[in-house]
Amino acid sequence: MEHRVTPAVDFRHFAHADLPDIRQTLLDVHADAYADRIHEEFVQRFPWFVDHWGGREGFACVIAYAGGEAVGFTYGSPSEPGREWWRDHLDPTPTNTSTFAISELMLRPKWRKQGLGEQMHATLLADRPESMAVLTVDTKRPKLQAMYEGWGYRKVGENQPFPDSPLYAVMLRNMK
User: How far is CA 147 from CA 35, 63, 142, 175, in A?
Assistant: First the structure.
């Protein structure tokens, strides 16, 4: 029987000012994570999303490293007060609408199904001041949606932010 030794994983925090140093790392992990769908136009627009989110002052990112190699990451930023895009899905709207919006969470394929996604997610949200976290997940990925439900999220609606994007389940989680 073969025994595989998993190297220790180190979770490192990055912010808006770090984007020039981590941008290529994010693109490299994405290319590996989406190798089977890299031909899709929406997937090819990922560099724009990195620049869009990374350009925000409140941008926060956690990259997981194993043996010096980036194996996954998650990032997002606080929603602008009063402009939380998920508001239309709740009636009534909560009193405290401060929200951290998670844009991406991905792992290289060989690092999936080991609990690293949840660890990165928890590391990203640890000590956040916002009262809620929001993310979206492709409605054609029910197992992924169920995973996020296991992390405390609930589906509050659906959204298709771009004509070529998937239809997403809008998932919200209380943090306070």
Answer: 22, 20, 9, 17
Say if strands 99-107 and 60-66 run parallel, antiparallel, or are unpaired.
unpaired
Task: Quick: pLDDT tens for 120-163.
Answer: 999 999 999 999 999 999 999 999 999 999 999 999 999 998 88
- Cα angle value 168/169/171 (rounded, 5°): 130
Answer yes or no: is 2 within a domain: no
Residue 36's domain is classified under what CATH number? 3.40.630.30
DSSP state of 88: G
pTM value is: 0.91
3-state secondary structure of 21: helix
What domain count does the chain have? 1
